[in-house]
Amino acid sequence: MELTIGYAGPGPWKTATPVQDPHAETWKPGGVGIGPQSCGDGNDKHGQVSGAVFGPASKDPAADARRVAKGWKSHGYTVSVIADQSKDASADHNVEIRADVPNGAVLSYFASDQVTSIDVTSECSADPVGLWDD
User: Fold this and answer.
1) Which of 1, 57, 75, 119 is 20 to 30 A from 26, alpha carbon to alpha carbon?
2) Where is this region: Disordered (predicted)?
3) Among candidates 123, 103, 100, which has minimal Cα distance to 41?
4) How many other C-beta atoms can be found within 10 angstroms of the C-beta atom of residue 98?
5) 130 or 37, higher pLDDT
C-alpha cells in the first residue's frame, strides 16, 4: 500500500470515501483498512490480505495513473489498463490501472475527478497466517 501511495501522492488517504463515512480515519500502515479475508472459494482455510484506501479527487487522472504505472513498472510489475475514460466528455474522467506482482498480489489504482483509490489484494493462500483464527 505504502509503495503505491508514494507514487499516487500525499492524500490524505482515508479508510472510506467521504460519501461512505465523512469521519473516516486517515490510513496509516498497520492500521484500519487492510486485513485478512476469505478468498471466496468456499474453503474457510484459505485466506488472503486485502484492503483499500481512498484519496482526494485528481486534477489529471491520466497523468496520475501514468505516474503510478511508471513506479510499478520500475519494480518489474506487469501493468495493464482496466478503463480509461479520461477523455470521455460524458464520463467522470477516470482511469483505472492494475499491476500484477510476481508474488501473486494484485494492485489497483483508480483516479477520477471525484476520488482516487488504491486496492491491494494478496494471492490466496492455504498457509497459516495466524490472523485467520482471530
Assistant:
1) 75
2) 12-62
3) 123
4) 19
5) 37
Using an 8 Å Cβ cutoff, are 48 and 122 in contact? yes
Residue with cell 474457510: 44
Best CA proximity match to 72, nearest among 51, 115, 101 = 101
Cell 483509490, residue located:
117
User: For the chain, how many residues are written?
Assistant: 134
d(CA 110, CA 103): 22
CB pairs under 8 A, 24+ apart, for 12-17? 12/55, 12/56, 13/53, 13/54, 13/55, 13/118, 14/53, 14/54, 14/55, 15/53, 15/54, 16/54, 17/54, 17/115, 17/117
Euclidean distance between CA atoms 109 and 103, whole angstroms: 18
More confident site: 75 or 43 = 75
